[in-house]
Amino acid sequence: MLRTHTCGELRLSDVNKEITLSGWVQRIRDKGGMIWIDLRDRYGITQLMLEEGKTTPEIIAKVRQLGREFVVQATGIVAERVAKNDKIPTGEIEIKLSSLDVLNPAKLPPFLIEDETDGGDELRMKYRYLELRRNVVRKNLELRHKGAQQTRQYMDGQNFIEVETPVLIKSTPEGARDFVVPSRMNPGEFYALPQSPQTFKQLLMVSGFDRYFQIVKCFRDEDLRADRQPEFTQIDCEMSFVTQEDVLQMFEGLIRHLFKTVKNIDLPEVPRMTYADAMVRYGSDKPDIRFGMEFCELGKDLTEGKGFQLFDSAELVVGICAKGCAEYTRKQIDELTEWVKRPQIGAKGLIYARYNADGTIKSSVDKFYGEEDLKKWVEAFGAAPGDLMLILVGETTKARKQLNELRLEMGSRLGLRNPADYKVLWVVDFPLLEHGEEDQRWFAMHHPFTSPKPEDIPLLTTDLGAVRANAYDMVINGTEVGGGSVRIFQRPLQMQMFEILGFTPEEAKAQFGFLMDAFEFGAPPHAGIAFGFDRLCSLFGGVDSIRDFIAFPKNNSGRDVMIDSPSQIDQKQLDELKIATKA
Ligand code: ASP
Question: Has this prediction a pTM greater than 0.85?
Answer without folding.
Answer: yes
